[in-house]
Specification:
The complex is a heterodimer.
Chain A: E1 5-7, E2 10-13, E3 19-24, E4 31-38, E5 42-50, E6 53-56, E7 65-71, E8 74-79, E9 88-95, E10 104-106, E11 110-114
Parallel strand pairs in A: 2-11
Antiparallel strand pairs in A: 1-3, 3-8, 4-5, 4-9, 5-6, 7-8, 9-10, 9-11
Chain B: E1 4-7, E2 10-14, E3 19-25, E4 32-38, E5 45-51, E6 56-59, E7 62-67, E8 72-77, E9 86-92, E10 101-102, E11 106-111
Parallel strand pairs in B: 2-11
Antiparallel strand pairs in B: 1-3, 3-8, 4-5, 4-9, 6-7, 7-8, 9-10, 9-11
Classes of the chains: A mainly beta, B mainly beta.
Chain lengths: ~120, ~110
């Protein structure tokens, strides 16, 4: 298995621009998580989905952030408009279900820099 | 909600020595405790986990202990090697399907 796939790996954009981050979870996994990591705040959960349905979006910073999961194999995290304080590494993670399969696997991350 | 505290925030050890990282959690209903290792420029990777029905688990040089009564769990790395240098995160979760709550991370440096 290729693991969790994220794209792009690096993104540099200017303040005010729209940014879209993409994630392909591990095949067969039914939970998907979006995290943000910064030096100051550590690893923060932004939102997570079970069976493509958003379950908890309490970590989404503000209305400029939105996430979708149109099907079991794809999710996006969008920031519109982007601001310099959004600069961070964004991770996607996925997890299977049932029995003892509770391991959560992270993708390689997208490093976002907003100028 | 759950709160996970992790100590120390940084840890420097000499190669060959042991490293110990400790975490405490607040929700007694938590029953799953994974540890992740994050190397520079990469995503966190699961290295070991423990469920609440077990007090200790080992995998080669890595071991995790859990004290449910005191609500704390620890990661032990023996015979440390330079490649063990990374940031380590502990986490806790209640029932399957709920989210993980992460500790703040420990930056481990193994000096050759």
């Amino acid at each position: 298995d290729a693991g969790v796939i994220q794209s792009p790996r690096h993104e540099v954009t200017e303040m005010g621009q729209e940014v879209t981050l993409r994630c392909k979870p591990i095949s067969g996994h039914n939970s998907l998580f979006w995290y943000r990591q910064t030096m100051m705040r550590g690893l923060e959960l932004l939102i997570y989905f079970n069976n493509n349905v958003p379950i908890d979006d309490s970590g989404m910073p503000e209305d400029r952030f939105s996430a979708k999961m149109p099907n079991a194999s794809f999710s996006t995290l969008k920031i519109q408009p982007s601001e310099p304080r959004d600069s961070a590494v964004y991770f996607c993670a996925s997890r299977g279900s049932g029995g003892a399969v509770v391991t959560q696997y992270f993708g390689p991350g997208t490093r976002l820099l907003v100028l | 909600g759950e709160n996970v505290e992790q100590h120390p925030s940084t840890l420097s050890v000499q190669e060959g020595d042991s490293a110990v990282i400790k975490c405490t959690y607040s929700d007694s209903a938590s029953n799953y405790f994974p540890w992740y290792k994050q190397e520079l420029g990469k995503g966190p990777q699961l290295i070991i986990d423990i469920r609440s029905n077990v007090g200790e688990k080992k995998d080669q040089r890595i071991a995790v202990t859990l004290n449910k009564t005191a609500k704390h769990f620890s990661l032990h790395i023996t015979e440390t090697q330079p490649e063990d240098s990374a940031v380590y995160f502990c986490a806790a979760r209640k029932a399957a399907g709920n989210k993980l709550t992460f500790g703040g991370g420990t930056r481990v440096l193994v000096k050759p």
